[in-house]
User: Which sequence fits this backbone?
């Protein structure tokens, strides 16, 4: 059983937000608009977040792309009262939109702010609406439920179906999320962390590798390679 | 049924008066509260039609007024059990005229507290999922079963001492409206008041009082653990459970004072609810104010002395940041005002305690707000602080809920007697026997010297 | 490990229903116990607050 994980090389990342845009097109996240975004209501499964360090005048700002960490020990799954959010055998944390009651306990419990809430019914400008991803697994979520990055599970399903149709065994290289595929700087790597020969496992073991808020004990499966 | 007796005791006359006649003043009050309540209903209807977007919430401020209200209202539900159960267990005689009021607050505030969670839900239509798909591991579910059991128990605890009074109403309010008579007959369950029946009732009430005490602690600890079980700064703290319990008793007694004084002057209950109750409860309020201050100090000092960045950010927002005005109002209402007024015996009057209690209720709401919000503006990830501006919808629903609390409380006492008649009469009988015994003892002591 | 049990949906609901159900049942029993007290239901026919305490 693979254990899907991601590595983001901050030395290569140019914070262009292509990953955010690709994610949006792949996963049909709604457009909140400027006013709503100012209230913190933009839904960006893969958000490039600014972190300021130091005090004026010696401030450095780091921009870090933040997908869902798909923690091995996910606090969101623990607190959900109805198991609307759960972890698959392959370690991916998913949400059952038909089950979610919108209590937002998970959004509050997630130390990475990776979970987003549908404050209104989803909306798109007409041109965008015509180009929504038709995959039923990413059908627009109803108002009042939580959603977040899924490592593009629909792509995993498709990759497995394709391999089966071609009569060959499914390999980890068949499956890659939209953000990884899009990244123009090749800063993102994706694969099976449990396979010691895989590139992600190798990079995750590098001395530059670290994870966000590791001290929380959430054991994220998204690794960063330190810049500089 | 027998005809009503020609004369009632003064207690019965006064206590039953509001059930018989309603003055215009009461209707004005009802209309005023009803208006505020309806504004809340309208705001809620709009929220359910449009979505939670009509609130001022966003990321990372996912929770706001509703969760604050949830903790706040559930806090009031302590009044009943703590006052009524503890005083019953310790057999404090002065409790008798106020237990009914305290128990009514418990049930009403608990229900209003619980529905706040419903207002906060993105999918209110799926509220039953909590009962269909509940997971034990989630602290939210601990609330579901703790509050469920507590609600059932406090309902029974309110109901048991009501039965003899209901039977009295059934037998003596023959001139009342038909629905009232039907209600009293139904609810009194054919109570006849034989000696054994009465003994069993008192025994059951005594047992319920003891059972309720641990339940009360569980309900508020569990409410605190919703926050405490997450890893957000200032929430992830072991003190949160006891802190919530103390705060709840504190605000519960304050609410009891406010509603007790309202009912007392409205229904002319001064002969029974008097100096003794105000004095003793006033002292209790002072003690709890000190306890609350101690818990607050422990929490803030421990956080402040260390240098954990995330926690410091939150603490600084409260002490010196945008939440500082609220913090000082909270301190004034919860500590300075009660001590200034209640420390002297002369201050523990109905007016004095009323003012102090209003201060405490406001202060305790802010306390809840300061637990819920500052942490969410500065969650552990370390992004730029968020700003929370509650929307009109949230304000309207909050005031509507408060209006609903007072409204249901007043209406409850239009249907049921505000003072437990049989318990007060029993108390008077006990007192009479004691007085007689004292007289006899004195007589014996005096005789030889003659 | 019992974790799967804690983690399974509806287990909590069953627990809640059992708990609340048994509590309800117990309280119903208390009420019945009080109301079926042996004694003199006919002799008095009056609530205790009606005459006994006077």
Assistant:
């Amino acid at each position: 059983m693979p254990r899907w994980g991601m590595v983001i090389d901050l030395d290569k990342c140019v914070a262009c937000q292509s990953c955010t845009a690709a994610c949006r097109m792949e996963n049909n996240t709604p457009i909140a608009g400027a006013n709503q975004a100012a209230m913190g209501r933009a839904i960006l499964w893969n958000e490039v977040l600014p972190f300021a360090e130091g005090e004026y005048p010696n401030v450095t700002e780091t921009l870090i792309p933040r997908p869902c960490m798909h923690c091995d020990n996910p606090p969101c799954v623990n607190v959900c009262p109805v198991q609307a959010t759960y972890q698959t055998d392959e370690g991916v944390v998913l949400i059952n939109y038909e089950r979610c009651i919108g209590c937002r306990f998970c959004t509050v419990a997630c130390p990475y702010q990776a979970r987003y809430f549908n404050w209104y019914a989803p909306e798109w400008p007409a041109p965008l609406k015509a180009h929504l991803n038709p995959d039923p697994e990413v059908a627009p979520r109803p108002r009042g439920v939580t959603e977040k990055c899924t490592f593009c599970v629909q792509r995993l399903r498709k990759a497995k179906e394709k391999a089966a149709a071609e009569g060959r065994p499914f390999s980890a290289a068949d499956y890659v999320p939209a953000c990884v595929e899009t990244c123009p700087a090749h800063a993102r790597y994706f694969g099976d962390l449990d396979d010691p020969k895989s590139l992600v496992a190798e990079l995750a073991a590098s001395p530059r590798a670290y994870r966000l808020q590791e001290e929380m004990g959430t054991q994220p499966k998204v690794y960063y390679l330190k810049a500089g | 049924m027998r005809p009503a007796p020609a004369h009632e005791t003064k207690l019965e006359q006064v206590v039953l008066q509001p059930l018989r006649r309603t003055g215009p003043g009461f209707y004005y009050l009802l209309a005023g509260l009803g208006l505020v309540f309806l504004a809340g209903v309208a705001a809620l209807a709009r929220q359910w039609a449009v979505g939670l977007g009509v609130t001022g919430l966003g990321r990372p401020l996912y929770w706001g007024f509703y969760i604050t209200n949830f903790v706040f209202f559930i806090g009031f539900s302590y009044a009943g059990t703590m006052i009524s159960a503890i005083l019953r267990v310790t057999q404090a005689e002065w409790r008798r005229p106020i237990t009914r009021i305290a128990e009514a607050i418990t049930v009403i505030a608990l229900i209003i507290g619980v529905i706040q969670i419903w207002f906060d839900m993105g999918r209110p239509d799926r509220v039953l999922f909590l009962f269909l798909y509940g997971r034990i591991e989630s602290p939210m579910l601990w609330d579901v079963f703790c509050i469920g059991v507590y609600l059932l128990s406090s309902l029974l605890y309110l109901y048991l001492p009501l039965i003899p009074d209901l039977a009295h109403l059934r037998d003596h309010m023959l001139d009342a409206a038909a629905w009232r008579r039907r209600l009293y007959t139904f609810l009194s369950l054919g109570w006849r008041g034989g000696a054994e029946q009465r003994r069993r009732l008192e025994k059951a009430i005594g047992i319920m009082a003891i059972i309720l005490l641990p339940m009360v602690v569980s309900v508020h600890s569990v409410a605190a653990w919703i926050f405490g079980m997450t890893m957000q700064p200032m929430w992830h703290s072991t003190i949160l459970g006891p802190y919530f319990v103390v705060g709840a008793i504190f605000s519960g007694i304050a609410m009891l004072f406010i509603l007790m004084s309202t009912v007392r002057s409205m229904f002319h209950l001064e002969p029974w609810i008097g100096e003794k109750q105000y004095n003793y409860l006033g002292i209790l309020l002072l003690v709890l104010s000190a306890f609350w201050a101690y818990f607050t100090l422990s929490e803030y000092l421990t956080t402040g002395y260390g240098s954990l960045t995330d926690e410091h950010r939150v603490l600084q927002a409260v002490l010196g940041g945008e939440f500082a005005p609220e913090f000082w109002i909270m301190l004034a209402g919860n500590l300075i005002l009660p001590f200034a007024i209640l420390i002297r015996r002369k201050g523990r009057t109905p007016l004095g305690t009323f003012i102090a209690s209003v201060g405490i209720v406001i202060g305790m709401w802010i306390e809840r707000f300061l637990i819920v919000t500052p942490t969410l503006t500065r969650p552990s990830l370390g992004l730029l602080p968020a700003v929370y501006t509650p929307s009109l919808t949230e304000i309207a629903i909050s005031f509507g809920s408060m209006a609903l609390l007072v409204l249901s409380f007043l209406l409850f006492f239009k249907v049921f007697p505000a003072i437990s008649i049989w318990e007060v009469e029993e108390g008077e009988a006990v007192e009479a026997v004691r007085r007689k015994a004292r007289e006899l003892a004195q007589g014996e002591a005096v005789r030889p010297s003659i | 490990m019992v974790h799967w049990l804690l983690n399974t949906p509806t287990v909590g609901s069953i627990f809640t229903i059992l708990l609340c159900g048994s509590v309800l049942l117990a309280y119903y029993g208390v009420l019945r116990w009080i109301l079926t007290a042996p004694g003199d239901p006919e002799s008095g026919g009056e609530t205790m607050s009606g005459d006994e305490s006077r």
Notes: The interface with chain B takes residues 3, 5-13, 15-17, 19-20, 23-24, 27, 30-31, 33-35, 37-41, 44-50, 52-54 of chain C (CB under 8 Å). Helices of chain C lie at 3-7, 11-35. Residues 28 and 44 of chain C are 26 Å apart (CA to CA). Residues 42-54 of chain C have pLDDT under 50 and may be disordered.
